[in-house]
Amino acid sequence: MRKKNSEILETEIEYVETDLVTLFLEEKRTFDMILANPPYIAEAERAEMSDYVLKNEPDLALFAENDGLAIYERLAIDLPHLVNETFWIGLEIGYAQGEAVQKIISKKFSTSRGSYPQRYEQER
């Protein structure tokens, strides 16, 4: 899928797996675009989740502290050091987190635009 996306977009895409952004901060790297699907589920939502997801995904990939917002709070601190002058950041969010994440991100980025509904009209 990664290779296919690069071919479709006719551009070189670098995919990196790291502890959030630690590697990039250490290397003082900056980017035009950052896409992330961080863990965003509150522990309190565990009981509502499907057994299939809970059995097939590690907790680290699903759950975050502070009602699922902890990773966004950390990203809001780190992302300003990682983007070029003109940039685009896309973050997947939980279905009820649009307003909270917008508030967190807009503290660091005045041009923050909001969320866009996914299928079933849920913000994601």
UniProtKB/TrEMBL annotation:
State which Enzyme Commission number(s) the record gives: 2.1.1.-
User: Gene3D superfamilies this protein is in?
Assistant: Vaccinia Virus protein VP39
Judging by the UniProt lineage, the source's domain of life is Bacteria
Q: Which UniProt keywords apply?
A: Methyltransferase, Transferase
What Gene Ontology terms for biological process does this UniProt record contain?
methylation
Q: Which InterPro entries match?
A: DNA_methylase_N6_adenine_CS, N5-glutamine_MTase, SAM-dependent_MTases_sf
Please give one Gene Ontology molecular function term for this protein: nucleic acid binding
Q: What is this protein called?
A: N5-glutamine S-adenosyl-L-methionine-dependent methyltransferase
The organism named in the record is: Listeria fleischmannii FSL S10-1203
